[in-house]
Amino acid sequence: MLDVPLGAISRVEKMGGASSRGENSYGLEITCKDMRNLRFALKQEGHSRRDIFELLFRYAFPLSHGLRLFAYVTQEKYEENGWTVYKPVEEFRRQGLPNNKWRLTFINVHYELCDTYPTVLAVPVKSKEEDLRRVAAFRSRGRIPVLSWIHRENQAVIARCSQPLVGMSGKRNKDDERYLDLIREANDTTKLTIYDARPSVNAVANKATGGGYEGDEYQNAELIFLDIQNIHVMRESLKKLKDIVYPHVEESHWLSSLESTHWLEHVKLVLSGAIQVADRVSNGNSVVVHCSDGWDRT
Fold first, then answer.
1. Which parts of the sequence belong to the Myotubularin phosphatase domain (predicted)?
2. Which of 72, 95, 119 is the last residue in one of the domains?
């Protein structure tokens, strides 16, 4: 008995053809997002796999075939309203917010400031709503630096955001520079650490498309690159890892094959970055973490 949610399927392919010979050489192969690869051997007589393939392909990727998503079709009823399970204001209160240094703002209640941010945001108490709008105009996709977590004892915070829109001309934004300094002032530290999760060469390259990183004009701040590759490189590395463990492991070249995937190198860099951030915060220094858009690596 196999339990494979349709949403967990990433690819459906036909295996073998009319001239295929040998046991299990004809059928379907299903690649799942949870690293499972499933192969189903079928009989060639009567084109038995055609209907199965078309139905599976159709319902595994409904939007590509003009169908509604499964959740909207079933419309399963629940006793509790799922939209109210998570209460952001209560979660901020659990962390001790708002306080005399941080306030809650509903500027994004209609998702007009940033369509990928929640409706309630925690920002420095000294910041004004018009400041947030000007900062959003200088941050990729409007993703301004906002509080994600605060240390209860030393009040150091982890703030997340996207890259500044510096561009090739090296544009500046006084409001953005001042806003980051307000984050630093919120827990009275002399230096704000900005962790750019990207490799420095990627950050420089992003200037060509209007992005970039914080330069020397951000006073009382230091910039550290964590050298973590983007999601596309990570996905390719994971695919290579999957290939060397499925359908069988080649023991004689295992270590060299593992090294060639670079997977452990990526894991090391992610863990190293997390440790650096945790260490800085535990020592009482607030940090800002971002990459390009601030939703994968961060």
1. 82-298
2. 72
Q: Which range of residues forms the domain containing residue 30?
A: 6-72
* Total domains in the fold of the chain: 2
Q: Give the domain CATH number at 26.
A: 2.30.29.30
The domain that holds 156 is classified in CATH as: 3.90.190
CA pair distance 266, 259, nearest whole angstrom: 11
Same domain for 19 and 136, yes or no, is no
| pLDDT tens over the chain, length 298 residues | 788 999 999 999 998 876 666 666 788 999 898 888 888 888 777 667 888 999 999 999 999 999 998 888 888 888 888 888 999 999 999 999 999 999 999 999 999 999 999 999 999 999 999 999 999 999 999 999 999 999 999 999 999 999 999 999 999 999 999 999 999 999 898 999 999 999 999 999 999 999 999 999 999 999 999 999 999 999 999 989 988 987 788 899 999 999 999 999 999 999 999 999 999 999 999 999 999 998 888 8
Catalytic residue among 32, 114, 161, 291: 291
As a residue count, the chain comes to: 298
- Please report, in range form, the residues annotated as the binding site: 230-231, 291-297
291 catalytic, yes or no? yes
Residue type, 277: V
Q: Which residues contact 119 (CB under 8 A, 6 or more apart)?
A: 88, 106, 108, 109, 111
Regarding whether 163 and 271 lie in a shared domain, the answer is yes
Q: Which two tokens stand for residue 277?
A: 């951030």
Q: How many CB atoms lie within 10 A of CB 196?
A: 25
Same structural domain, 163 and 279: yes
Judge if 140 and 209 occupy the same domain: yes
